[in-house]
């Protein structure tokens, strides 16, 4: 499978968590491994990339329309198929912003547990379904072989110093500038700049990246700790249904990219899929797709969701809350 070091722990920990086995996520390690992934993703940028940026315009034009249709379709599914009240349906339907939607939904009177479960399922299922489909249907698998492994000894002391600096300074800059996903995006920007300028030409050691993937996969799987399939089986099934709806919308919009921009369907699906920024970028890396293209689209997706969903809720939130009260009555 693509990305086996992340998908294996994610599926394994998720399965035993749902089975009731007590698991505890190593969330403290996330602060360490996310910058490593950011630096790794930045290494996928190269000077020749400037020749292709113009071809991204079509994707950027379609992205807002995709997010609007995806959110509306997911909302309709949760509201009319699942019978969720309007507030819960609205915040469960957002195609991104897991932590932010939980906070905003709770403040609006929604069920934080239900919203958290919906978004955890979205990320979990999108990654699992896409990786499996690409491997089985398209025969796109993880890139393996001696040429893909970067040993610690492949880096000079200067390379190591530059990569450490892009990681550390990137985190500080990301937080100071209030970037989305600052611990990932900050290091990714500085690493991309260093690689575009060819100050450094190697990625971080593969051993560190593998450890980071195992950690991320474990944390994702452990999000289901305390979730009982018996008590939340219906929510789990609705999460699966909503994810399938989102992926269908994703495939339709990705298919438009072919005639519009010449973007291959496999790459367009990765760019539009409403999974996590880190995870979808890693999938692109694993399957030898255009990391810069995929990660850039996901950063913009997150920005649009984080700014757009609260603005939309401000405009229609009063009616949703009134509808939610009537549903409860």
UniProtKB/TrEMBL annotation:
Chain ranges passing through the membrane: 6-25, 56-78, 123-143, 149-172, 184-201, 207-225, 237-257, 291-316
GO cellular component terms given for this protein: membrane
Cross-referenced Pfam families: AbrB
GO BP terms: regulation of gene expression
UniProt xrefs under InterPro entries: AbrB_dup (IPR017516), AbrB_fam (IPR007820)
KW Transmembrane helix (keyword) present: yes
Claim: GTP-binding is one of the keywords in the record: no
Keyword annotations from UniProtKB, A to Z: Membrane, Transmembrane, Transmembrane helix
Recorded superkingdom: Bacteria
PANTHER family reported for this sequence: REGULATOR ABRB-RELATED
Protein's name in the database: AbrB family transcriptional regulator
């Amino acid at each position: 499978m693509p990305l086996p070091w992340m998908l294996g722990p994610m599926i394994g920990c998720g399965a035993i968590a749902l089975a009731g086995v007590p698991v505890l996520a190593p969330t403290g390690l996330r602060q360490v491994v996310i910058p490593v992934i950011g630096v790794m993703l930045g290494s996928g940028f190269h000077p020749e990339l400037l020749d292709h940026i113009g071809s991204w315009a079509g994707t950027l034009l379609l992205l807002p329309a995709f997010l609007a249709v995806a959110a509306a379709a997911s909302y309709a599914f949760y509201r009319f198929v699942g019978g969720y009240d309007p507030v819960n349906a609205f915040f469960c339907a957002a195609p991104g912003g897991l932590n932010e939607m939980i906070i905003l939904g709770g403040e609006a009177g929604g069920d934080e547990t239900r919203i958290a479960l919906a978004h955890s399922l979205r990320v979990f299922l999108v990654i699992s379904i896409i990786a499996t489909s690409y491997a089985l249907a398209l025969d796109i698998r993880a890139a393996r072989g001696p040429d893909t492994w970067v040993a610690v000894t492949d880096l000079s002391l200067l390379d190591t110093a530059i990569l450490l600096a892009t990681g550390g300074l990137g985190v500080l800059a990301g937080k100071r500038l209030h970037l989305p996903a600052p611990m990932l995006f900050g290091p990714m920007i500085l690493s991309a700049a260093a690689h575009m300028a060819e100050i450094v030409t190697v990625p971080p050691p593969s051993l560190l990246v593998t450890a980071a993937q195992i950690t991320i996969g474990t944390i994702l799987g452990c999000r289901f700790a305390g979730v009982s399939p018996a008590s939340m089986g219906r929510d789990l099934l609705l999460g699966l249904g909503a994810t399938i709806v989102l992926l269908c919308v994703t495939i339709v919009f990705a298919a438009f990219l072919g005639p519009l921009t010449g973007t291959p369907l496999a790459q367009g699906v990765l760019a539009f899929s409403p999974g996590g920024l880190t995870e979808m970028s890693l999938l692109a890396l694993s399957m030898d797709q255009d990391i810069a293209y995929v990660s850039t689209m996901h950063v913009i997706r997150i920005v649009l969701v984080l700014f757009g969903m609260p603005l939309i809720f401000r405009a229609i939130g009063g009616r949703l809350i009134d509808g939610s009260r009537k549903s409860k009555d």
